[in-house]
Design brief:
The chain is α/β, with parallel strands linked by helices. It folds into two domains: 66 residues; 244 residues, Metallo-dependent phosphatases (Purple Acid Phosphatase, chain A, domain 2). Helices cover 33% and strands 20% of the residues. The longest helix has 19 residues. The protein is globular.
Length: 327
């Protein structure tokens, strides 16, 4: 029985590997890993593999997506802005459809996955939010904690449970390093967060492409005024960070400060504020990031509409008229 289920498991991995066009040497390493660790799910001849296979494969594929990436890419991933903050029905699901069609290596959200702010409904909201994108479960998903996600001790516990990560963490993919920071309950980054950031960047100094992500754009005023005298910027500059990304305000903005790109992402479902005009940065969409060598190119894609580059945007919205529509 154990051998039969192991055969099922290996067949499933081979099928997924063909779908993702993994190189044959990588597939060989994967299959060896599966066989060597089969006893983790089979004990005393009572194999629990059928029940465990879906979760194991999801975890395995997330790991394999990383180890199968070439040392210097290229690869691409998707950034998603806020889902909630007076969420507009159906928008998030449509954005995921369009983002998944790009076949990214993984997806990173910038926070506010649930409406939250109510301990009694938070668990149900997490279940509903993740169920709405269950069809894309094969794509690794990295969540940033937002103020609608974390506001109390219970909500923090639920974020850890459903996100599968602590409030701050980091990961590598090929030549890139990603640091996720937590400012869900404060407009500024705490001393503890800055300590974590410095320790993390120091430990991954060799990675040539670095991204910092937090929900609230604590840097907005300083970057807008071209003031480099703040702690986050000093650390980013010291350790060669190229891109600092946030959400929260639901508006597409872009600022350059001493070679660092500061980016506020457009909404992925949260309501549009003020003028609501595209040229002012108020629209629904996702951002596709192509990493090649030591550079990253941001392509900002309005839902069902216009496509722009990061250089098309400034601190007050579009810097010039965009005539093209479509992708």
């Amino acid at each position: 029985m154990r051998q039969e289920y192991l055969t099922i498991r290996l067949t499933a991995v081979r099928s997924e590997a063909r779908r993702q066009s993994l190189p044959r040497p990588t597939l060989g390493r994967i299959l060896g890993l599966v066989e060597r660790n089969d006893n983790l799910v089979c004990r005393r001849s009572a194999c629990r593999l059928l029940r465990a296979v879906p979760k194991l494969l999801a975890l395995l594929l997330a790991v394999l997506a990383v180890i199968s990436a070439a040392p210097d890419g290229p690869f691409r991933f998707v950034l998603l802005g806020d889902r909630t903050g007076e969420a507009q029905p159906g928008v998030y699901e449509r954005i995921w459809q369009e983002a998944a069609a790009e076949q990214p290596a993984f997806v990173v959200t910038i926070g506010d996955t649930i409406e939250g702010l109510n301990d009694s409904t938070a668990a149900r909201e997490w279940q509903q939010a993740l169920a709405s994108v269950h069809a894309y479960a094969q794509m690794p998903l990295y969540l940033t904690p937002g103020n609608h996600d974390v506001w109390s001790p219970l909500s923090e516990k639920l974020f850890r449970q459903y996100a599968g990560h602590p409030l701050h963490y980091s990961f590598d993919y090929a030549q890139a390093h990603f640091t996720i920071l937590d400012n869900s309950r404060s407009g500024e980054l705490s001393a503890g967060e800055l300590e974590f950031l410095e320790s993390d960047l120091k430990a991954h100094a060799a990675q040539p492409v670095k991204f910092l992500l937090s929900h609230r754009p604590s840097w907005l005023l300083n970057a807008g005024l071209q003031n480099p005298d703040f702690a986050l910027h000093r650390l980013a500059k010291q350790y060669g960070v190229r891109y600092v990304i946030a959400g929260h305000i639901h508006q597409m903005l872009h600022m350059e400060l001493e070679g660092i790109s500061y980016v506020s992402l457009p909404s992925a479902g949260g309501h549009l504020r003020l003028s609501g005009r595209y040229e002012d940065g108020w629209f629904f969409g996702h951002t596709l990031v192509q990493v090649s060598g030591h550079d990253a190119r941001f392509r900002i894609e309005e839902t069902g509409g216009r496509t722009t580059d990061l250089s098309d945007w400034g601190s007050a919205g579009l810097t010039h008229r965009v005539a093209s529509v479509g992708k």
